[in-house]
Design brief:
The complex is a heterodimer of chains A (about 180) and B (about 350).
Chain A: E1 3-11, H1 16-29, E2 33-38, E3 48-56, E4 70-73, H2 76-82, E5 91-95, E6 109-113, H3 115-121, H4 128-140, H5 145-155, H6 164-176
Chain B: E1 4-8, H1 9-19, E2 24-27, H2 34-43, E3 50-53, H3 57-69, E4 74-78, H4 80-95, E5 100-106, H5 122-127, E6 137-139, H6 144-161, E7 164-170, H7 171-175, E8 177-181, H8 216-236, E9 240-243, E10 250-253, H9 256-271, E11 276-281, E12 283-285, H10 289-296, E13 301-306, H11 313-319, E14 326-330, H12 339-350
Parallel strand pairs in B: 2-3, 2-4, 4-5, 5-7, 6-7, 10-11, 10-13, 13-14
Antiparallel strand pairs in B: 1-8, 6-12, 9-11
Helix pairs in contact in B: 1-2, 1-6, 3-4, 9-12
The chains are: A alpha/beta (about 180), B alpha/beta (about 350).
């Protein structure tokens, strides 16, 4: 029995909601219970977008993720807003290209991934979020790489199917960091 | 059975309505309900249905009145301020004995309010969804799966009792994605509607759908007939989930998405040894009085948890004839109570007895 409580946050357009969608579909594929609660409204319109995802073997009561076990942040405002909420013993995965801060808390484990820079360097433009997803997979082990690969085939629309190999490359890159 | 799919509440509700035979949707966009209308706009033209974005909520609701008069399964959806505009047509449909489905994906009020999740339209839905002596069926789902399951129930009971039904959801349920199993379209039973105003080539006396009765005697008779139906519904159609209530000293009463958060608090309180349970109404009208009466046999105290200023509290007090204290905890305006806050209220209620 295990429950994964995670929060993914960044600017609108950085792909935090897509990140949440991919891991939610992985949970569905693995026959788990899943809740995915996105932010909506003013924060989406040019501000920060975030998404709470719970994947569990058990029935999920509250879909709120107030104290994530693993927090993924892609910009500084999200970092500042949420770093204090991570459950003690939990993880924070951050894009160190865009967040120029060191985590001061000693009760959580920080993973600094220069995702935006790596995406640029490896010709994976726009896939910084997926590099972070690779790291997320390596840190949490919430599913298998095979499930993630299958999930991309489901969530990427047919006319964008040619982008699937790039996405998988980005996941693998993130996993190896 | 269909496979499990991951869907947003608003979209799952729309798909469920289609699978339950709804082919006529009339709407107007408003956050946090818009995905429902957007989904309908994509699907309806492909299956020979009608999707119409009206010039206003008032127009949309009156188009539902027209379509329902012709005997088809028709629906509209909106969020709080938009529902206020629909109340005129809802009253006319009650007065004309017309079945239909109205979805309210609630946001904060009053006025334009906000756009975050709220349950502040409880009074409107259960007491006065329009002017006159009337009720509508009100269903309160707590998950995307229940959004889907209750759509079928709402359409079926609306048809059976010839009255409007409402799904009272909220922004959280509308926006949230969860795995869901949809019904197969073939599983739906449609009832005959011999009262519908359809073309018949002069083969029968013509039907009239009308809510105007200028003779008081006649109007009173139609209202009284309707209330006999309401009394039957109150006896037979009330639904609630009773969770850990059998031995509960304290009982939370909460519905919709808010009840899921309350359930987390109930579990946490049980781990601390507090005997607390949850009564979760699935129908708000009819209100599940019997479940509360039963819970009151053991419970010392009740606590309503809502995303409003406590609109359900009086219904709970009435259901149990004020035999136990009923207190309230909640937030309004788009703020969602947290499990920790509710747990603190439970512990306060349990006092030193925990």
């Amino acid at each position: 029995m295990s429950t994964l409580r995670t929060l993914i946050a960044g600017f609108g357009g950085q792909g935090s909601l897509f990140f949440g969608k991919v891991i939610s579909y992985c949970g569905l594929h693995d026959d788990k219970n899943v809740t995915n609660l996105p932010s909506y409204g003013p924060e989406m319109r040019g501000g920060t977008a975030n998404c709470s995802v719970i994947i569990s073997d058990e029935e999920i009561s509250s879909p709120l993720v107030l104290n994530p076990d693993t927090l993924v942040v892609m910009n500084l405002p999200s970092y500042d807003k949420f770093v204090g909420t991570v459950a003690p013993g939990g993880n924070i995965i951050l894009d160190s290209t865009l967040i120029d801060k060191k985590v001061e808390r000693e009760d959580i484990t920080a993973y600094y991934v220069p995702a935006a820079e790596l995406a640029e360097k490896h010709n994976l433009q726009g896939l910084a979020n997926i590099i972070l997803l690779g790291k997320f997979l390596a840190v949490t082990g919430f599913t298998s790489l095979e499930t993630v690969e299958k999930t991309f085939e489901k969530v990427v629309p047919a006319k964008k199917a040619h982008l699937i190999p790039k996405n998988i490359e980005a996941v693998k890159l993130g996993m190896e960091l | 059975m269909s496979e499990r799919v991951l869907m947003k509440g608003n979209e799952a509700l729309a798909e469920a309505a289609i699978r339950n035979g709804c082919r006529h949707f009339f709407g107007y966009p408003i956050t946090p309900q818009t995905e429902l209308a957007a989904y309908m706009s994509k699907r309806m033209p492909k299956i020979g249905g009608t999707y119409l974005q009206a010039e206003s909520e008032i127009a949309a609701a009156n188009m539902v009145l027209g379509a329902a008069s012709a005997g088809v399964r028709a629906m509209t959806s909106s969020s709080s301020p938009g529902i206020s505009l629909k109340t005129e047509a809802i009253s006319y449909m009650c007065g004309s004995d017309l079945p239909c489905l109205i979805v309210n994906v609630q946001r904060g009020g009053p006025g334009l309010g906000g756009i975050q999740a709220s349950q502040a339209d409880y009074w409107q839905a259960t007491k006065a969804p329009g002017h006159g002596d009337l009720h509508i069926l009100v269903f309160a789902p707590c998950s995307v799966q229940e959004m889907v399951d209750l759509v079928g129930k709402a359409f079926a009971l609306a048809d059976q009792y010839r009255m409007p039904a409402m799904i009272l959801a909220d922004g959280m349920l509308g926006q949230m994605m969860e795995p869901v199993v949809l019904c197969e379209p073939g599983e739906v039973q449609m009832v005959e509607k011999p009262w519908a105003v359809t073309g018949h080539g002069g083969r029968r006396p013509h039907n009239i759908v009308n809510s105007l009765f200028l003779t008081p005697d006649e109007l009173e008779r139609t209202v009284k007939e309707r209330f006999e139906r309401y009394r039957k519904i109150e006896k037979t159609e009330a639904l609630a989930e009773n969770y850990m209530t059998d031995d509960a000293d304290y009982v939370i009463v909460s519905y919709g998405a808010c009840a899921r958060i309350a359930k987390s608090a109930v579990l946490a309180a049980r781990e601390k040894g507090v005997k607390v349970g949850l009564v979760r109404p699935l129908t708000l009208w009819p209100f599940p009085k019997q479940d509360l009466i039963k819970a009151a046999e053991h419970a010392k105290e009740f606590l309503c948890v809502e995303m409003s200023m406590g609109q359900m509290v009086d219904d709970v007090r009435l259901a149990i004839s004020c035999s136990r204290p009923v207190s309230f905890f909640g937030h309004t305006g788009g703020i969602i109570p947290t499990p920790a806050e509710i747990l603190a209220e439970i512990e306060k209620m349990a006092g030193g007895n925990a």
